[in-house]
Amino acid sequence: MGVESKIEYFRDFIHAKGLRYTPEREAIAREVFRRKGHFDPEELHQALRREGHKVSRASVYRTLPLMMEAGILEQVEMTDKHAHYERVMGREHHDHMLCVSCGRVIEFYSEEMEKLQERLCEEEGFQGASHTLEIKGYCSRCRKKAPRPV
User: Fold this and answer.
1) What value does the CA radius of gyration of the chain take, rounded to a whole number of Å?
2) pTM of the shown model
3) What's the pLDDT at 85?
4) Which residue from 96, 107, 83, 101 is spatially nearest to 134, judged by alpha carbons?
5) I need a labelling partner for 60 at 20 to 30 A (CA). Which of 21, 83, 105, 126 fits?
6) What is the bridge-based pairing of β-strands 105-108 and 134-137?
């Protein structure tokens, strides 16, 4: 799915909710679809301003939850205690390991973990729609600097 198709999908989602699809929402969506990694709302706002878009912080903070609801973004908890996001639409599913010392994020995928989750849902008669797995701990660099008992 190309960027224009993703933009159209978001525009249709906004209209289906009875909301206006504004030039600010368009600029925010285009910037989100350009990004490849994790970002916070402030980084997104600053990037939009640098590009000359007159987008308020409030517009960014109101649009991101709509993009989550549309299945475009997921919120990722980070160690600095404020919201970070990543685009999931058009990307392969993955989970995260978060270093609580330096903030490093390691993305990983485990077929074994996915099968276990499916089996657990089946055993409980539960139909899973999505999931987020975040393992918090210490990356190899931080463990070498100051070993901690685990």
Assistant:
1) 18
2) 0.68
3) 80
4) 96
5) 105
6) unpaired
